[in-house]
């Protein structure tokens, strides 16, 4: 986990080791999710990459609606 500084234009640079670990390339899409004072930055992958990721999911393990992101 690296640290970032916000520029005068409110831009941030993702630390090199994080870009490498997440295989972030120029042109990749990222989304942000905010919960309280935490900002999550998530790489958007192709739909085909998600295929099978929910296999065997037990719905009982899902969090209650109030615990999910807005």
From TrEMBL:
<protein>
    <submittedName>
        <fullName>AbrB/MazE/SpoVT family DNA-binding domain-containing protein</fullName>
    </submittedName>
</protein>
<keyword id="KW-0238">DNA-binding</keyword>
<dbReference type="GO" id="GO:0003677">
    <property type="term" value="F:DNA binding"/>
</dbReference>
<feature type="domain" description="SpoVT-AbrB">
    <location>
        <begin position="4"/>
        <end position="49"/>
    </location>
</feature>
<dbReference type="Pfam" id="PF04014">
    <property type="entry name" value="MazE_antitoxin"/>
</dbReference>
<dbReference type="InterPro" id="IPR007159">
    <property type="entry name" value="SpoVT-AbrB_dom"/>
</dbReference>
<dbReference type="InterPro" id="IPR037914">
    <property type="entry name" value="SpoVT-AbrB_sf"/>
</dbReference>
């Amino acid at each position: 986990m690296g640290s970032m500084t916000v520029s005068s234009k409110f831009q941030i640079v993702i630390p090199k080791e994080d870009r490498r670990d997440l295989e972030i390339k120029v042109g990749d899409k990222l989304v942000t999710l905010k919960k309280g004072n935490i900002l999550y930055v998530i790489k958007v992958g192709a739909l085909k990459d998600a295929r099978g990721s929910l296999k065997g999911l037990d719905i009982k393990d899902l969090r209650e609606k109030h615990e999910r992101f807005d």
